[in-house]
Amino acid sequence: MLYLSQFAILGLATISLAHPGEHHSRNDIHELAKREFKVAARRGLEACAGKLEARGYHTEAASRRAAKVETLRHRRGLLPSNSNKRDAVDVDAKSHLSTAGYTFDTPESTLFASNGTCILNPEGETGPFYVKGELIREDLTGGEPGVPITIEGQFIDVETCEPITEIWWDVWNCNSTGVYSGVQSMGNGNSNDASNLDNTALRGIGKADEYGVVTFDSIFPGHYSGRATHHHIVAHLDATVLENGTLTGGTVAHVGQLFWDQDLITAVEATAPYNTNSIAVTENIDDRVFYTETDGTESDPVFEYVYVGDELADGLFGWITIAVNSSATYDPKYSFTLTANGGVAQGGGTGMKA
Predict the structure, then answer these.
(1) CB neighbours (10 Å) of residue 11?
(2) Angle between helix 31-54 and helix 57-75 axes, rounded to 10 deg
(3) Which residues are the signal sequence here (predicted)?
(4) 75 CB-near residues (< 8 Å, 6+ apart)
(5) CATH number of domain containing 40
(6) Domain with 281 in it
(7) What pTM, to 2 d.p., does this model score?
(8) Using CB atoms within 10 A as the burial measure, which of 7, 19, 200, 261 is most buried?
(9) What is the rounded CA–CA span in Å between residue 108 and residue 89?
(10) Is the Cβ–Cβ distance between 255 and 322 less than 8 Å?
């Protein structure tokens, strides 16, 4: 069966607290300034919509996403399904689903054409477990068990309406039981396990292609106390690639977080090894980061997605279009660094996660 979440993703900023003790890129951003930015960014994206359509970016995106899912199905030995059954999606009491049913026979121009856009607002928060110096790579799984996911981000310059081909997407998330790799900290798994400092699973950096697209293979994040399921992201510009396959220098155009549909999270959490985590799940609506960026706005910072096969175990393909103000410059904080000799804790690197 095929499931499609059709979100009109119109905004994302992650200003509010993610964990007690988290570091913030800036301590205070005036609410008026945030609202003004959202209005300006939305207008910029509205102006871009026609240009992107005229240049064929939506058509290209539909074909690209369909081809990627087809590749994933072949890789996993899956055959098309004839079912038209769908998953009901209700994000925070607001349904974003159309009433149409989709099957594997639905034209790709219909199925994958949606380009929900995530407006990146004034700087979000990095969180305490950003590891500077992660590896440039597409496969982030690192042998971690869980529901396989492939995520695609397409970066558009809100000022020029052009794809940003020189941007680097830095992404990280916890594993299926809520533990982050690359750090040693209280509240993050076994705080006595120093070997986790050298663990690079579920972290990585990728450069955009000619369409501003970056793709990663990973696993669906688990959960931990006080936070909804999420991915952290940092967007780098003008960076330099080192001989060891890591990134340095340049500027950061955004720091933020991305989320998934709550119904999907519930389904994933019912499977192993997610269901071995006894910590209560925090839903999107109860997550301070998610709530701050959606309440009273048009924001909906959630991936659009399809099931690759009939079951969750077959994996998911999710996508989002991210509008970036390429002239913005921020300073994300980090508590750990990946070096040639392994992970190293920086100041504040032993703080509580939750």
Answers:
(1) 22
(2) 90
(3) 1-18
(4) none
(5) 2.60.130.10
(6) 4-345
(7) 0.77
(8) 261
(9) 21
(10) no
Among residues 14, 345, 309, 318, the alpha carbon closest in space to that of 188 is found at: 345
Q: Which of 211, 213, 234 is nearest to 120 (CA)?
A: 234
Outline where DSSP puts E strands in 74-147: 117-119, 131-132
Q: Which of 322, 295, 351 is nearest to 15 (CA)?
A: 295
Q: Is 351 part of any domain?
A: no
Please indicate, yes or no, if residue 353 is contained in any of the structural domains. no
As a whole number of angstroms, the distance between CA 303 and CA 24 comes to 24
- Cα–Cα distance between 187 and 102 in angstroms, integer? 42
Give how many domains the chain has, as a whole number. 1
Report phi then psi at 127, rounded to 5.
85, 165
Contact by Cβ (8 Å): 216, 204: yes
Q: CA nearest 317: which of 201, 222, 220, 223?
A: 220
Q: Average per-residue pLDDT in the chain?
A: 76
Q: Looking at residue 114, what is its pLDDT? A: 59
